[in-house]
Structures are given as structure tokens and as C-alpha cells.
Fold this sequence. Notes:
It contains twelve helices and 13 strands. The strands form four sheets. Strands 1-5-6-4-3-2 form a six-stranded mixed beta sheet, with helices on both faces. It has a three-stranded antiparallel beta sheet with strand order 7-9-12, with helices on one face. Strands 8-13 form a two-stranded antiparallel ribbon. It has helices at residues 16-20, 37-52, 96-108, 141-157, 160-166, 174-184, 194-208, 316-325, 345-362, 368-378, 381-396, 403-422; strands spanning 25-27, 59-62, 70-76, 79-85, 115-119, 122-126, 131-132, 215-218, 227-229, 254-261, 268-275, 304-305, 312-315. The model is unreliable at 1-21, 239-258 and 269-297 (pLDDT under 50).
Amino acid sequence: MQIQTQISPSRTTLSSAWISNSLMLTLPEWYVELDTKEIAVDNVVKLVKQVTGKDSDVKVIDLRGGITNRLLKAEQDGLKLLVRAFGRGTDTFIDREREFLVHQQLYDLGLASKLYCKFGNGLMYGYVPGRTTQPFELSNEKVMINVARRLAQWHASLKPETIASQMTNDIGDLWTVLDKWVELCPEGVLPMTKQEIRTEYKWLKKELAVYAGRNVFGHCDLLSANILIPQDTDLTENSSDNAKSIQVPRSESTSSIRSQTDPRTGSSIQLLSCSGSPVDVLDILPVPKLTPVSYFEDLKSDASFIDFEYAVPCPRAFDIANHFQEWQGYDCIKADVPTPSLSDHNLFFWCTEYLKAFAKLTQSPQDINELVTELQAFWGLPGFYWGIWSAIQSKSSQIDFEYADYATSRFQEYIDWKKNRYNE
């Protein structure tokens, strides 16, 4: 089916004044078809002209080659846009209404780009300049500071109750998402039967309730590919005196670039692999006393988060633990993941930056010991979460990725965590 074109006349004569204000066009009858790249690009050209009301040339670059969640960049008369078309059947995993409302509130808070159009199977929003980070860069001091501050802004500012009040369905939370995924999980992929996984889910939900701590609206998919930093960001040196344990490649290290398909989006991403000795690790930082709010430094962050498909109310410890677990990348290099302990230099530094920012934004005291205790409790849940997700994808996704192997590796994180924590 080709893109629908029967739109009311009032929607086809949008002025430049409209494009600069806060209004967003809703075109539920428009669909961007994903059958081929050519059809998708043609559909986007027509959609952009429909939204802007201009007939001038539209340049389109296909950023994602899969049939799921295709992302295309469009430019017309200097206006740069991203068109994200949802793949068929993705609503099995993702609440699109919640995703849209999250994006809308983030834009109102200055934490996301402007939404220009909501169409039948996707969204059109402003292009965010910058580049995505690499997994090994997540432990760089500058990246840690910017990500920690930005996530603190998310957690302090995004209001679940506001989004819930606008939804036609229940907003849900981390546990309702997992409950749905457990039901969809196929047999024979993970080292547990479906009934055993259901039993584990119930146990986890009860066990972790004691350590849930502060509930926030989490991103819940904060891997390197969903973190943007300015294109010219220099990560070769660490300028802060606070972090002396950041491991970055030495100047004599070697590097190579390889392509990999992002299993969660279908995009083609470039991964920079580095070899060589890490910078020497220096003495651990002493546990600080958080200073009064008025003494905190500026909370500016150059990091931007993208892709809000999995954003949902959750304990803050899950969102943070999930980010740390993503340091391993899709290659599952477990050694790159920090340890949930005050003695881990990088984790301690990241959490300190997060808590300083959160305390200032909420005007409330924060305790790093409390946060690390929460992280220890939630450390295994991301493996359970993405292990089940990947097991489902192994039977349904058409993206070229070894989902079954990834599911096994991530789920093993959960098994190892439980064994170590409970001596099982």
C-alpha cells in the first residue's frame, strides 16, 4: 500500500510561522511503507512536503536499513528532520502512545527535539546534531559527567503522573512490561522453561520491592547508540581532578572500525575497536559528603538521549544499572562493566555526579551508599530483561543478528548475579 494522500485542505497549506511554533500536525491516515528503500524514501518526501506546505526539493538519507523502525533523515530548505517509521508488529513490545507522550513532555522540558508530525505508523521530529557514542567511551570522564547529569535531569523532571493522565490505556511500569514479555518468551532459547522464567519473574518482583528506592520515569535503553554528544567532542584527555580512574586508550593503541547491525533498531552502526594498555588506575576517591545545593556547580550537559521506545516508570536503580550493563556493548565484553561497589572508581564517580545533579534539581539530600545498595540489588535485572527480549526477537525479528546467542549471554548475567548475591 502506498502512502495515503487524501488530506483536508487546511492541512496542506502550512506556513513557516506554523513550523516554528509548538503545534504538531497529526496525520493518522498517512503511512510510510517499508517494503523497499525506494518506497520509503518516496513516502518521506511526500510527507515532508505535506507537513511544511512547501514543494521545494527534499533530500532524504536512509539511516536504517532494516524493516523495523526505519529512520530517515530529511532536509528541506535548511530544515533538518528525522522520520521514524515503526515496523509492523512492533506494538507487541512497545506502547507507542506512551512513547509519543514521553517525547512530547521531554520536548516541553528541553530534553528532546521538537515533534513536527505524528502519522499513522511513526513520528517526524527535529534532527539532533552530534554523534553516537561507542561502548568503550561510556567510561570516559567527560561522557560520564554528561550522561550522569542528563539522566538526573530525566529522573528529576519527567513526571509519570502527567503522562498517565493523557493516556487512553494504563501507563504501566517496568514490571508490567516484563510480565508481557515473559508471556511472549518462547521455549528452548533460554536455559529455563517458560514456567521457571515466570517463577523467577514473580520472585524478582517481590524481592526487589524492598530495594526499589525512588521511582522515576526511566529511559531503560541507555546504551551507547542512544547517547549523542557533539561531533567535535574531544575525549582524548580528562580535564577534571575528580576522576583519576578513567580508562581510555593510550596514544600508542591501535584502532579499527567495523559495521554492525543494531539489534534493537535495525540500524547500521559503526563500532570503533581499540587495543592497547589502559591508562593506569590511580588511588580510589574518598567517599565525599554531598555539599549544600547552593554550592553545586553548573549542571550543563552536552549529552542528548534518543529513542524513547522503552521509556517507562521504574526504580531509578534499574535505569542506572541498565546503563552500566550496556558498557559491555553488543559484543558482551563483561570486563568493561563496572562493579556495583563504592570501591569501583568509575561507578563511584558516575554516581557522585548523578547525585549532585539530582540533589540540586530536587532540593533533596542524596546518599551514595543508599544508591549503590539499590544498584547491587538491581544489577542482575537488566540481564533478565534483555535476555527475555532477545529470546522473543530470535523467533520474530528479521534483523540480521544472533539474537539467541545474545539472549543466552545476557540471561547468564542474571543467573550469575543471583548465584553470587544469594550463594545459590
